[in-house]
Amino acid sequence: MTQLEIARQGKISPRMEAVAKVEGLDAEFIRQGVAKGTIVIPANINHLNLVACGVGAGLSTKVNANIGTSSDFGDMSTELEKVRVALAAGADTIMDLSTGGDIPAIRRAIIAASPRPIGTVPIYQAGIGAIQRHGAIVKMTPDDLFAAIEDNARDGTDFVTVHCGVTLSAIARLKKQGRVTDVVSRGGAFMVGWMLHNECENPLYEQYDRLLDIAREFDVTLSLGDGMRPGSLADATDRTQIEELLTLGELVQRAQEAGVQVMVEGPGHIPLDQIETNVRLQKAICKGAPFYVLGPLVTDIAAGYDHITGAIGGAIAAMAGADFLCYVTPSEHIAIPDVKDVREGVIASRIAAHAADIVKGVKGAAERDRAMAVARKRLDWAEQSRLSLDPEHFEQVRRARSSTGSACSMCGQYCAMELVAKYLGVKTAKC
Length: 431
Known about the structure:
Shape: globular
CATH superfamily of the largest domain: Radical SAM ThiC family, central domain
Strand content: 5-15%
CATH topology of the largest domain: TIM Barrel
Radius of gyration: 23 Å
Order of helices and strands: HHHEEEHEHEHHEHHHHEHEHEHEHHHHH
Distance between the termini: 54 Å
Number of strands: 10
CATH architecture of the largest domain: Alpha-Beta Barrel
CATH class of the largest domain: Alpha Beta
Helix content: 40-55%
Number of helices: 19
């Protein structure tokens, strides 16, 4: 049975127990959330070394790291190094978006190397396979697509992005909308091209029950992709995006009725003042299903620094109720990320997630910040390092630019807290 089916029987699974322990919550709270569909536990029955991770309402905001080869760069060894770096930096999940090399082999190696949930986009395998065999993505058959989904599930993929909401009606809306950036989702573009060429409805929508059967067999969590997400601020919250979201809301209900865990992906590029609206819309339309956002990016002109624009948007989205942040790396819009980009992307999104968790009242979030403040007051550098989101970087900077006194080299002998503590009679720790 899936985690959703177990929860609805009133039972607490070992996965639910594990999530409860990590979150510091009662296991019954986790069970109730899974049963309602407001929490998912992506946990394929074939991912044998998996450490359970919960995503959803009442839990800490999770961070995903995208990796994967392209047609120009990367091989299995580089992607496995990215897995190692992403996990070391604190990523909760990893998505393999490989479009180059031996895609199934790379996926299997990543799943074997990661104790964290792994996500994929099966249409990449199906579409690129059609190019290799027949010379064009549009030659892909519905059977090719579902075979790729089943391959991913059988290999142990914990959640799959599927662009079920890219329908003929959504494409008609796109044509009338007059967008600046049209479709920026790679999987969405594959689907749009196939549908227009073949003059057929999206098989993921038309044969949705077939998808649900695969997901239920392996307990794969469906991540309903936003193939019509805005790729620029000019296209944010338009009719095309909302058309797709309305369809996804219906598909969430069908998935949950079938006992399949499901979450919903969100935009994309959104101005600051539209982020909360987008989150509230998704939660209302999709029955409170976990919301997984890319960024969102709050400006289009920060190329090379989009981990920052993504963190700004991610903090606001998570504060408004988004549950899952897909990181954005500095090289977004410029190049495939390298190992350094992966690390910086994870840390930036973790900062955003934690900032939102303080406001959400997530257990332990505000307490950690207070403990850091106490450690700073005491000039307790060991404790500050332990409490920091990135202890490795903390230690590197301190070693490189240390002070001869108790304080840091920013103020040196004129440290405000050290001076005031002296006159207030408060003792400080020594290095």
